[in-house]
Design brief:
Layout: H1 9-110
Length: 111
């Protein structure tokens, strides 16, 4: 098979080398463009995600923090004003019961 300007095997070799060079150059530029587009898209997505987190999650975390501080204050108030007096009264009642129990044993053993 002969083409007018390709006569020898060396010229065929050179022709195919040039074809592969051009094809490789097109492939390189296509891959480069795809890489740049994907890099831009991923950077854009990450920045959008960070912005969304900053705008939505940060206020929610602040709200949760405020709520937990209120709950902590409420628990402290209830502990100081409700639970502590009840425990003191219950302790006193338990002490009086024990005293009466011991005193009844002592009086019962003397008879």
């Amino acid at each position: 098979m002969e083409v007018a300007w390709i006569d020898t095997p060396e010229e065929w070799r050179d022709f195919f080398l040039m074809c592969f060079l051009v094809a490789g150059l097109f492939a390189f530029f296509a891959i480069f463009v795809v890489t740049v587009v994907l890099g831009w898209a991923s950077t854009s997505t990450v920045l959008r995600g960070r912005r969304m987190l900053k705008e939505n999650v940060a206020p929610t975390l602040d709200s949760v923090r405020e709520t937990s501080e209120r709950v902590r204050g409420t628990v402290g108030f209830i502990g100081d004003n409700l639970v502590t007096p009840v425990v003191k009264v219950y302790g006193t009642v338990a002490g009086v019961r024990r005293f009466v129990s011991v005193l009844s044993r002592i009086i019962g053993s003397e008879r």
